[in-house]
């Protein structure tokens, strides 16, 4: 029976941002259900039963990989987190009381897409820039990149932060224009990091 099975602590981590999202417990049955459905399942110690994350709220968690620690008594769910995880409505159970995005670039992507979809060009710089065409957009990206270089050479922190923010914003508009999700960019960065890490381990042998 489920009650007789040992319970293991399970940490849920966003596989893209590596943000820790929540801690819960699972028995073997919950682990097996998570593997077979790719949806996070746990075991409630207070209710003494299995439960699927999001079974009442709809905020399910898609699990890409399950990792076991070296002692075999704890697990890590690497997951795609697209909904608030905490019952308070925050993205993470370890966040403050406010709503927030685990990935600021994903938040920026959402803002750009919303402005393009909802605002007329005369009231939205984002929509206006999009309607000026790809040539103008890539020109702006180039201009902002030059501004970053100039600010870096001047060596002042505040202007540099502002110029980097401007560049990221215009890159976000470009990714929307080219239909490139930020999640794909994040995945590529993680792939490169993992490749570099593996190469470093190989060289150290």
From TrEMBL:
Pathway: Amino-acid biosynthesis; L-histidine biosynthesis; L-histidine from 5-phospho-alpha-D-ribose 1-diphosphate: step 3/9; Amino-acid biosynthesis; L-histidine biosynthesis; L-histidine from 5-phospho-alpha-D-ribose 1-diphosphate: step 2/9. It is an enzyme of class 3 (hydrolase). It catalyses: 1-(5-phospho-beta-D-ribosyl)-ATP + H2O = 1-(5-phospho-beta-D-ribosyl)-5'-AMP + diphosphate + H(+); 1-(5-phospho-beta-D-ribosyl)-5'-AMP + H2O = 1-(5-phospho-beta-D-ribosyl)-5-[(5-phospho-beta-D-ribosylamino)methylideneamino]imidazole-4-carboxamide. The keyword Nucleotide-binding applies. Keywords: Amino-acid biosynthesis, ATP-binding, Cytoplasm, Histidine biosynthesis, Hydrolase, Multifunctional enzyme, Nucleotide-binding. Residues 22-94 form the Phosphoribosyl-AMP cyclohydrolase domain. Its EC number is 3.5.4.19, 3.6.1.31. The keyword Amino-acid biosynthesis applies. It comes from the Bacteria. It is found in: Cytoplasm. This is Histidine biosynthesis bifunctional protein HisIE.
């Amino acid at each position: 029976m489920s009650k007789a099975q040992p319970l293991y602590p399970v940490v849920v981590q966003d596989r893209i941002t590596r943000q820790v999202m929540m801690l819960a417990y699972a028995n073997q049955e919950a682990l097996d259900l998570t593997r077979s459905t790719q949806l996070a399942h746990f075991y409630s110690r207070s209710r003494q039963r299995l439960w699927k994350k999001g079974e009442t709220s709809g905020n399910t968690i898609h699990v890409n990989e399950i990792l076991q620690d070296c002692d075999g008594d704890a697990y890590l769910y690497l997951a795609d987190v697209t909904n608030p995880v905490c019952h308070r409505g925050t993205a993470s159970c370890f966040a403050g009381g406010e709503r927030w995005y685990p990935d600021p670039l994903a938040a920026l992507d959402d803002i750009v897409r919303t402005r393009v979809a909802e605002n007329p060009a005369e009231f939205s710089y984002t929509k206006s820039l999009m309607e000026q065409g790809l040539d103008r957009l890539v020109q702006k990206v180039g201009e902002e990149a030059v501004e970053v270089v100039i600010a870096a050479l001047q060596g002042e922190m505040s202007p540099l932060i502002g110029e980097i923010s401007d560049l990221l914003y215009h890159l976000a508009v470009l990714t929307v224009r080219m239909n490139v999700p930020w999640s794909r960019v994040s995945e590529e960065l993680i792939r490169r990091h993992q490749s570099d890490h593996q190469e470093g381990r190989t060289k150290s042998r």
